[in-house]
Amino acid sequence: MSRQRKILLGIILVVLVSLYIDLPKTSLDFNLFGLRFKRDLKIRQGLDLQGGLQVVLQAEMNDIAEEQRDTALEAARNVIERRVNFFGVTEPVIQTSKVSGQYRIIVELPGVTETEQAIALIGQTAQLDFREPVFAELPPESTESATITGFNETGLTGRDLERAAVTFAPNTNAPQISLKFTDEGAQKFEEITKRNVGKPLAIFLDNQIISAPRVNEVISGGEAVITGQFSLDQAKNLAIQLNAGALPVPITILEQRSIGATLGQESVQKSLTAGVVGLGLVAFFMIAYYKRLGLLATVGLIIYGLITLALYKLIPVTLTLAGMAGFLLSIGMAVDANILIFEKIKEEQRAGSSLRAAMETGFGRAWDSIRDANICTLITCFVLFNPLGWSFLNTSGMIRGFALTLGLGIFVSLFTGVVVTRTLIRVFYR
Length: 430
Fold this sequence. Notes:
Layout (H helix, E strand, L loop, with lengths): L2 H20 L4 E6 L2 E6 L3 E2 L1 H4 L1 E8 L9 H19 L5 E7 L2 E9 L4 H8 L5 E8 L12 E10 L3 E8 L6 E7 L1 H12 L7 E4 L2 E4 L11 E4 L5 H15 L4 E9 L1 H30 L1 H23 L3 E2 L1 H30 L4 H31 L11 H32 L2
Parallel strand pairs: 3-15
Antiparallel strand pairs: 1-2, 4-6, 4-14, 5-6, 7-8, 7-11, 9-10, 10-13, 11-12
Helix pairs in contact: 1-8, 1-11, 3-6, 7-8, 7-9, 8-9, 8-11, 9-10, 9-11, 10-11
């Protein structure tokens, strides 16, 4: 079997797998080399398509020191994310933004209909408190260990915690969390640890337990350390949660907007109609102008669509109207690649080259233009998507969705234009 036919079989296999993923189903669940892969294969719709609630919150930083404001904003975002997950919202978007000295949190909750309840949940200031255990009473003759039946409030709250930070144990260099209390908090903490030596002291954030370290000895002086088998990320996350309740960051609602599902469905239908009409016109032009070459390019575009939809389901990509625009634009760029290739082939034929030589040379000459154009677009996608979260670049979820779908579309179009279309022409075109 020739090399081209082997590549063609590989393309057919990719198409069949993509088609299987694209067919309507609820999930994909299998084991591969001992690793389990499970993915929900539903198309995930964003706020503008599914409907829901968007809230813009402002964090009041007047009482927060300048060097602690970024930490306070991240801590507040972390608390809101916990609350949203507790509320049961699927695919929420929670991101921070700093604009002209204003610290904001943008929350998008697709599918939420209970607007007032959601706003009341996410708009509260974080509540942190320390609680001591309550043990079940056992008969005097019992040899069993008493079990914890609950936790009682101690009066030690986030107001008494000055700060939490990640440090490293001097002997083992293992990550740990250092706590520093205020003067009043230090006195409370000493009394609490005195009556709970050998017992766990639970830390609650918004009435949910986040840690329960064991008290090994009476702690005085207002400084303590939480040790354990922490990874660095786990230690950082716990420190952020503790600071969320320690830093008094009041949240005010700047803007709230409800989007109905009817508007979203109408937008989807119109966008799909526009996409189908546009794709049909492109296919008609390609076939009418380039004949059999255009037909093979149209087959390549269909393969492009199948692979792209499969990637949207596997990653998964939350699709918005802006994301659909990025997908349609990437189709246009895929068509541009085919046109460049075909025109280079025609130029070579006019210069007297044979069909096979014209095809090979045409693909080679077109690749330089295709590569340069797509690299420029990918750089633009990187800036718009802002994967590193730089505050001086875009932080809008919709613009990021556009950049993500456009970037994915470019990578797939490079594969279909350079590999798929090239292989189809080599095998089928005479």
